[in-house]
Amino acid sequence: MRRTTPQNSGASLTTIGITDLMISLAIVFILLFAAQVTKTSSAAQSELQENKEGVQTALRGHIQRLGLSLDADPRDPLALLIVVPENLLTFEFGKSTLSPTAEQFLAEALPFYVRALCGPLRDKIDSLAIEGHTDDHGSDAFNLKLSQERSLAVMVKGLEVIQATEPTSYQCFQEITSAVGRGRQDLIYDSIALVNREKSRRVIFKIRLRSAEQRHLVERSTNPL
After folding, report:
1. What spatial distance separates the first Cα and last Cα of the chain, rounded to whole Å?
2. pLDDT tens string 120-173
3. Could you give the C-alpha distances from 32 to 26, 28, 36, 38, 50, in angstroms and in order?
4. pTM
5. Which residue intervals of the chain are DSSP H helices?
6. CATH, domain range 47-222
7. Which of 86, 110, 90, 109 is nearest to 98 (CA)?
8. Distance CA 216, CA 71 (A)
9. 3 state DSSP class of 120
10. Residue numbers in the chain where pLDDT is lower than 50
């Protein structure tokens, strides 16, 4: 007796073959896309590291002369931090009034920083945040308000200094700078339970770099095809 083959078996085999081909193409596409993403991410990381090193090189000498440091922010890969201790940026106790020492520091330091950030480094810089920090004395509400007022006092004094010494950079400084009060957040500890109040009272200049995407958008807007 002769065995017959179902009429739709050929169509089924064709369908299976096409399905396998589509799956294979999809896998190849995914692998190529992943490789491109990895390559792009690696290039962006290299560009970011190069920008960080460029900013650090431009500011290193002046920062070291003031006894400060320019360090990477462990919580933000795009940020660099200049931590200014209380002995350089001093305020009246419980107030936001700058001391003569603080005014002298700002008058000396800010013109140099602004010339760099608003000059040769401008295409690398996204923003500059002035962060005020307090210790653990007082309530959270009081410390948050005090740190906000202190960071704002630094920014206002900075605007005065820049207007007097670097007027061409005044608008740039105004555009990229913000004042942020952090209160008693991010306290510095000597041990697990012991707060170092002197080190906790500080002002941080947070320089945030432009991401690769931001830089490319700016380049396209300034150099349209």
Report:
1. 76
2. 999 889 999 999 999 888 889 999 999 999 999 999 999 999 999 999 999 999
3. 10, 6, 6, 10, 27
4. 0.74
5. 9-65, 100-117, 140-165, 170-176, 197-200, 212-222
6. 3.30.1330.60
7. 90
8. 25
9. coil
10. 37-40
